[in-house]
Structure formats: structure tokens, C-alpha cells
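Morning F.,

Quick status update on the modeling queue. The single chain you submitted on Monday has been processed. Sequence for confirmation:
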Amino acid sequence: MVHLIYTAVLTIIGIFCIFVPLWLLMRANKSISMKVLPTEDDTKVFYTYVWFYETGKLEVLNGDAYQVGKEIQATNAGKYVIKEVNKEVLFMGMQRKYEFVLG
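C-alpha cells below.
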């Protein structure tokens, strides 16, 4: 019985030591990489996915910087104005998709 308790405690400590640092790193990550969504017309649509544990990205995307009417700058030095923001919840709330229609 004592061996079982020691094994359970060591397993819980091991899982804690592996997942907590990963969670802290992902939570602090605020870099957002967006991809161009192919469209039939000339509108530019960028999208990105955010997992539930990426709270830093969620704060940035839900903050003032990515709201309708705000200007964002792409990596190719192009500046765009956000015309529409579409949010979609996937995988039972574990992942969110953000689509930004730019002008």
C-alpha cells in the first residue's frame, strides 16, 4: 500500500514538472502568426488559431490592437485596416479561430 502511494505521488510530481513549465511558456507567448486565407475576390483575409492555454495570445487578440477599424502592420511592411473580425470556437471551446478581413 505504501509503495502504491509513493508511486502515485511521484507520478503526480513528474506530470507537474513536465506540464507546468510548458504551460507557463505557452501562456507567456504573445507572438501571433497569421496566414492568408485564399478568397475568390481581392479581399485580404488573415486567420490564426489559438489554443485554450495560450492566454497571452487571447489577451492580445481580444484587446484593443485587433478590433474593427484598427491598423495593423504585416511582416512585408504592408499596413492594413481591419474591416471585420470573425471568431469561431472549435473543439468544444479548446481552440479559437480568428479571421480578420482587411482593407
